[in-house]
Write a structure and sequence with these properties.
single chain, alpha+beta, Ubiquitin-like (UB roll), 3-stranded antiparallel sheet, 2 helices, 22% helix
């Protein structure tokens, strides 16, 4: 029996891949910024997994978060096409 990929199950439940770039200040050099990339399947628009991770970071890590840049399929999309009832044939 073939095992179904758990990521596929998450997609069926409404989850899709979210990528966050977290900029944080170094604990011993607050004037410098470092970046960390976080990626996981999460549910837009509330992003509970990302929020949980950021709460953990704030509570447990010394480098304070400066900003977060988020990319997600619901935030960024290619141009959407719709059928308008006409057909154009190009040779």
């Amino acid at each position: 029996m073939r095992r179904i990929d758990p990521d596929f199950h998450r997609r069926l439940d409404g989850y899709s891949l979210a990528t966050a770039e977290i900029f944080y200040r170094l604990p011993d050099a607050r004037g410098l910024l470092q970046s960390y990339v976080w990626q996981d399947y999460d549910m837009a628009p509330r992003f509970p997994k990302l929020r949980k991770f950021l709460d953990f970071w704030t509570r447990e890590l010394d480098g304070p978060i400066h900003s977060v840049r988020l990319a997600h399929v619901r935030l960024l999309r290619p141009a959407e096409l719709r059928h308008v009832g006409r057909e154009l044939t190009i040779h």
